[in-house]
Amino acid sequence: ADLDALRAARGAAFDTLYVQNQVAAHQAAVTLFQDYIAAAPESALKAWAQSTLPKLQSHLASAQALATPAQ
Q: What is the model's pTM?
């Protein structure tokens, strides 16, 4: 459904929808990683998730900044 909406959108409507989808996807990824880190036993995968989480949080912040109108 989201992909169909993006295909149909044009101009500013596309930009807005794209950014909204990026924010939602990055929020979901951050939550997934946080939940995994909190519950997982110590392992190489957990260490990787811990080192990757700050990058995901940075990408989320960038997407949120795009969603905030310039002042």
A: 0.87
Residues 6+ apart with CB under 8 A from 64: 23
What's phi and psi for 12, nearest 5 deg?
A: -60, -30
Q: What is the mean pLDDT of residues 8-33?
A: 95
Q: Are 41 and 4 in contact (CB under 8 A)?
A: no
- Whether residue 29 is predicted with pLDDT greater than 90 in this model: the reply is yes
17 Cβ contact list (under 8 Å, min separation 6): 2, 5, 6, 9
Amino acid 1: pLDDT: 64
CA distances from 12 to 6, 17, 18, 67 (A): 11, 9, 10, 12
Q: Is 66 exposed, middle or buried (0-12, 13-18, 19+ CB in 10 A)?
A: middle
